[in-house]
Amino acid sequence: LMERKTHVKINRKAIMLAKLRKSCSCTPQKLKNFLMDFFPVLRWLPKYRCKEYIWGDIMSGLVIGIILVPQAIAYSLLAGLKPIYSLYTSFFANIIYFLMGTSRHVSVGIFSLISLMVGQVVDRELLLAGFDLNDDAPPASGDGSLQNDNLPNTTAFNLTIAGINAECGKECYAIGIATALTFMAGVYQVLMGIFRLGFVSMYLSESVLDGFATGASLTILTAQVKYLIGIKIPRSQGHGMLVITWINIFRNISQANLCDVITSAICIVVLVTAKELGDRYKHKLKFPLPTELVVIVVATLVSHYGKLNEVYASSVSGAIPTGFIPPKVPEFNLMLRVALDALPLAIVSFVFTVSLSEMFAKKYAYTIRANQEMFAVGFCNIIPSFFHSFATSAALAKTLVKTSTGCQTQISGVISAMVVLLVLLFLAPLFYSLQKCVLACIIIVSLRGALRKFRDVPARYRVNKVDTLVWVVTMSASALVSTEIGLLVGIVFSMLCIIVRTQRPRTALLGQIQDTSFYEDDLEYENLSTVPKVKIFRFEAPLYYANRNYFLKSLYRLTNLDPNLEAARRKKYEKKEKQHLKKGNHRTANGLGIGETTLQLVPKQIDFQALVVDCSAISFLDTTGVNTLKEILKDYKNLNISVLLACCNPSVIDSLKRGGYFGKDFGCMQEMLFYSIHNAVLFAKDQK
C-alpha cells in the first residue's frame, strides 16, 4: 500500500476567530480597499486609456441608447406600467452598474423576461385591489401628469403614506407594487451577496434557463397578440394564462382593428427583414442598423398625421411626461404582499447577469467577481426603486450589440444613459401618437432568439435525452402554468433527474483487454477475455442509502449468485442431512452417499472464488454504503468467496476505515484493498 500523508489538524475555531478579528478591524488601507472593491470604477477609471477606448465606448453607447429607447417604451406593455417608468429604469440601471459592476461589456437595464415577471405580479395585485386590468381605454389628453389617473378606470385604493391616508389610482398603485417588488428583489440579492449564496445559481442548469426563457417567450408572445390585431380583451391572470388568452383572442377575433393588423404586418416584415440582413452582413456593417428607432419614428409620424387614433380607433401610447418625479420610499405594506414573488425575480435577474458577465469575461480574457456582481445588480434594483423604476437584469441581445460596436468599458453605459436622459427631458411627449401594435411588433421580433430554440430540440435530443426532457418540462410549465412555477418545476425536475441517475446507474461485469492489464465492460466491447474464477463488478455512481438495493440487485443479477439465498439453501440442506444421519441412514436426501454430500453443498453456478469491486466511479460512501460493503463481505465470505476492492479514492478509503470495514487495526487492509483492478485480479489468482 502507498503511504498516506499525515494531515495537520486545522483549528477551525482559531481560524474563524482570526478572520473575524481581521474583518472587524478598521485601518485606512482596509477602508480604501473596501471602497475600491465595492466601487470597481475607482480602480479602472484612473487607468482608462482615453485615446484607445473612447471612440468605441461612445459609438457603442449611442447605439445601445438608440436601441434602449424603443425597447423601454415597448417593454412597459409587459410590465403593465407607463412607458416613462421603463425609461427611468434604463437610465438609473446604467449609471449604477457603471459604478459597481465588474464586467466591462454587459448591458444592464430593462429585460423582457424580468418585465414579464414584474407585470404578472402587478396584474395580480391590481386585480385583488379591485382595478380593471383593461388598459385599452382612450389615453388621457392632458399634461400626462403621473400624480392622478384621469382615465375611466379610476377605482381608488387607500394607502397610508408617511402617516397620511392617501387615495391612489390604478397607475399609482401599479408602480407602487412594481417598486416594492423591485426593492425586495434587490434586498434579497444584497443579502445573497453578504452571505455568499451565489452557489444558488449552480442549480439553474443551461437546460432549465433555456426552457424557462423559451416558455416565458411564448407567454410574452401571447400577451402581445391582442395589441397586434387591436382587440380589447381582459389581461388574463393566474395559472394557465397562455391558454385562456388564446381562447379569448379567438372568441374576439371578429373585433380585430384593420388598421392595427395592417400596421403590424408591415412593421413585422420590415423588422424581420432588417434583422435577417443585419445577421447576414454583420461582418460588413460597422454597427447594427437602428431599425427599431426608424420604425418607431416613421410609425409615430404616420399615426400623428394620419390621425389613426381618432379615425380608426387605433390604440396609442398616450402622454409620456418629461422630467423626473420626486423620489418616494416604496410602501412597506406592499413589500409584505410581494416578498415571496421577489425571490424568483432576484434569482433569475442575478443568474442572467452573472452568466453573461462570465461569458464575456472569458471571451475577452479578464475576470469578474460574482459576489460583487450580485451587489451591483442588487443596488441596481434597490436605489432605482426609490425613483419609480422596476427590476433590471443584463440582456444578451443588447450585450452582443454592445461588443460588436466597439465597447471597451462601462463608459458606454453612461453614454447610453445620457441618450435616455435626453428622451426623458425633451423627447418623450413626441411618442404620444405611437401605436401600441408597433411596440408589440418590436417585442415579438426581439423574441426570435428564444423561439429559435425549438429548432435546436432534435440536436439537443441527440446530445443528451435527459437534458432535452428537462428543457421540455421547464418550457411547458413556464408557458402553461406560470413563469415562477415553471422555474421551480425546472429546478426540482432537473435535481430529480440527477437523483434518479444515481439511484439507477450503469452497472457492468468487466473483462480483460487481451495482453494488457486493463479491463472494460464486457457488453460494450468485443474480444474481451473473462478472468477464470474471478468476477469484476463496476458500479458507476456513489453508493448511498438511495441506491443500496439497486447495487445489491445488480451485483446478484450479474454474478448470477445471491449469497443470502445460497446460504439459506445450504442450511436447509445441512439440516436435512443431519436428520437422515440421526435415523442411521447413510444415504442423503438426494440418494447420494455421505462422501458425496460436499459436492452437493457447492452448486454448479458458483464459478468464481473472488469478487473484485471496481470502485473507481464511486465518489463517496455514506453510512449505508459502508454497511452494504460490509454486508457483502460477510455474505460472500460464508460461501468462501473473497471480496476485493480496487481503485478506491481517498475519501472512500477513509469512510471504510471509519466504518470498520478493514477491522480494528487495519491488519487485513493489504489483502482487501488494491490500487488497480489488475493487482486485485493477480492477488485473487494466487489465492488457494
From TrEMBL:
It is found in: Apical cell membrane. This is Sulfate transporter. GO terms for molecular function: secondary active sulfate transmembrane transporter activity. GO terms for cellular component: apical plasma membrane. Belongs to the SLC26A/SulP transporter (TC 2.A.53) family. InterPro entries: S04_transporter_CS (IPR018045), SLC26A/SulP_dom (IPR011547), SLC26A/SulP_fam (IPR001902), STAS_dom (IPR002645), STAS_dom_sf (IPR036513). The chain crosses the membrane at residues 53-75, 95-118, 172-191, 211-229, 334-354, 375-397, 409-427, 471-500. It is a multi-pass membrane protein. Gene3D superfamilies: STAS domain (3.30.750.24). PANTHER family: SULFATE TRANSPORTER. Keywords: Cell membrane, Glycoprotein, Membrane, Phosphoprotein, Transmembrane, Transmembrane helix, Transport. It holds the Pfam family Sulfate_transp. It catalyses: oxalate(in) + sulfate(out) = oxalate(out) + sulfate(in); sulfate(out) + 2 chloride(in) = sulfate(in) + 2 chloride(out); bromide(in) + chloride(out) = bromide(out) + chloride(in); nitrate(in) + chloride(out) = nitrate(out) + chloride(in). Residues 524-684 form the STAS domain. Its main location: membrane. It comes from the Eukaryota.
